């Protein structure tokens, strides 16, 4: 699996440690939150967005604000609290249109590849396409991908997922019982933990792909059909690679507990801390990296730290 292609971070509320997210899955969950967020999040934000007093946009690192057109409106911070579903196991994705698009594309490719055989009795394009399709599905079902996407221990750990200090949303996932350790997943390094069997299987597939590539290079007739097959596959890969998806499609089944939002970031963090001890405290350094807190805010967080023993 590639590393995360969207800059995001994970905060461990137990000790406040901040980790860059390397997991491609967790990075996509943060990136696509606008797509999969529950309706309750919009219901909480809408009254704030409709209030002209609070509908502002933060511009620049100094957190200045100014009135903006309706399509650019935002509030200070929205914290969504989730927990793992007890009914669906971690690492078991729900099939969506992205999954089925691969099957549909493969059928169309085989249809295109069969035209040279039907028209000119040339079976080489069909044979190469069939072998490539088989290799693609075998590669996709490799246990190596499961190992890289979902390998982590099962232990209760509450974390926060967000992007930058100017982020509109923060995703809190409450760990309970034997829920997966998302911190371990976020910093997972598959190349150091892959077994010899996994490495051997990957090397074997690489050799087969090389043989297929040599076969394609040696094709002399009806190459336009082969080009059409490859072009369709590349278009499908581009579409799928950038598609927004829900966490359940990645094997993370989340259920919403509560949404806490407000026009002032610090006020939201205080409210979160009041309901979920430790969560608000862990996010202060992320959303206020330079400090510069008001005296009453300093007193509040000092009292919180004294009470928690941090």
Structure description:
This protein is α+β, with helices and mostly antiparallel strands. The protein has one domain (about 10-305). It is built from 13 helices and eight strands. It has a six-stranded mixed beta sheet, sandwiched between helices. A two-stranded antiparallel sheet has the order 3-4. Strand 1 and strand 2 (about 20) form a beta hairpin. The longest helix is centred in the middle third of the chain and has 24 residues, at about 95-120. It is elongated, with a radius of gyration of 24 Å. The model is unreliable at about 55-65 and about 70 (pLDDT under 50).
Main beta-sheet annotation = 6 strands, mixed
Which structural class do you get from the secondary structure elements? alpha+beta
Taken as a percent bin, the fraction of beta residues is 5-15%
Q: How many beta-strand segments? A: 8
Kindly, what is the distance between the CA atoms of the first and last residues, rounded to a whole number of angstroms?
37 Å
Helix content: 40-55%
State the strand order across the main sheet: 2-1-6-7-5-8
Contiguous low-pLDDT stretches (5 residues minimum) are 56-63, 68-72
- Mean pLDDT, to the nearest integer, reads 85
Anisotropy-based shape: elongated
Write the H/E string, N to C.
EEHHHEEEHHHEEHHHHEHHH
As a whole number of angstroms, the C-alpha radius of gyration is: 24 Å
**SS element count, helices:** 13
How many structural units, i.e. domains?
1
